[in-house]
Amino acid sequence: METQFQVEPQENLQQQANDKKKSGRAWLLGVIGVYSTFAIGTLAVVGFTFTQKVELVSKRHYEDGVNFQSKIDNSYRAEALQESLSWKVSSDATMLEVSYPASFLASGDVSGKITFFRPSESTMDKVFFVNIGSNGKQYIPLSELPSGFWVISLDVNAGGQGYYKESQVNL
Fold first, then answer.
1. Biggest alpha carbon distance in the chain?
2. DSSP 96
3. Residue 1 lies in a domain
4. Where in the sequence is the domain holding 27, given as residue range(s)?
5. pLDDT for 104-148, tens place per residue?
6. CA torsion sign, 83 to 87 to 91 to 94?
7. 132 phi, psi to nearest 5 deg
C-alpha cells in the first residue's frame, strides 16, 4: 500500500487566504454599519426632542406649587356651600352660564377670575373676571373659543373667603 499525498496548488492556498480576508472585512463592515446606524438614530432622536415645543401650565410654577394648599382649602370651601357654585354650557355650546350662591350677592365684595385653560395649546388660554349680575349669574360667550377640550377653573373671593372650582369640558 502506497499512500499518495496530493499537494494543493499555490493558487488554491492564495484563494483561501483571500476568502478569509474578505470574511474578516465583512464582519468589520457589519460592525461599522450597526454602530453608525445607532449613532445616527440617537442623533436624530436628540435633534427631534430639541425641536419640540415645551409648555408649562404656568410660568410661575414654583409659586403656584407653594400656594397649592390654599387652592385645596378653597376647593373644600366651595364644596361645603349650601348653594352650589356651578356652571353649565348652553345646548348649542355658545354660552357658559355661571351660577353664584345668593350669599355671594349679599356679601357685596366679590372678585375673582374664570380661566379657560387649553392643555394642548397655552396660547389659547382665556381669562374672564367675575362679574355677577343681579340674578346671581354670569354669562360668558364661548364663540371665540375653538372647539375641543378645555379645563375651566373659577377662583373667586367673596366676603373675605376664597372659593375654587375646576372642571373639564369638551366644547
1. 127
2. E
3. no
4. 8-52
5. 877 778 889 999 988 888 788 889 998 888 888 889 898 888 888
6. positive
7. -80, 130
Please check whether residues 47 and 95 belong to one and the same domain. Answer: no
Side by side, the strands of the sheet bearing 95-99 are 86-89, 95-99, 137-141
DSSP 8-state assignment for residue 7:
P
Distance CA 98, CA 105 (A): 13
* Separation CA 88–CA 135 (nearest Å): 16
Tell me the pTM: 0.64
d(CA 132, CA 110): 8
Same-domain status, 47 and 65: no
Listed in sequence order, the residues at least 6 apart from 147 whose beta carbon sits closer than 8 Å to its beta carbon are 93, 171
Phi, psi (degrees; rounded to nearest 5) at 131? -145, 90
DSSP SS3 for 19: helix
Same structural domain for residues 26 and 69?
no
Among residues 148, 48, 163, 46, the alpha carbon closest in space to that of 103 is found at: 163
**Are residue 79 and residue 47 in the same domain, yes or no?**
no
- Which is more confident, 6 or 123? 123
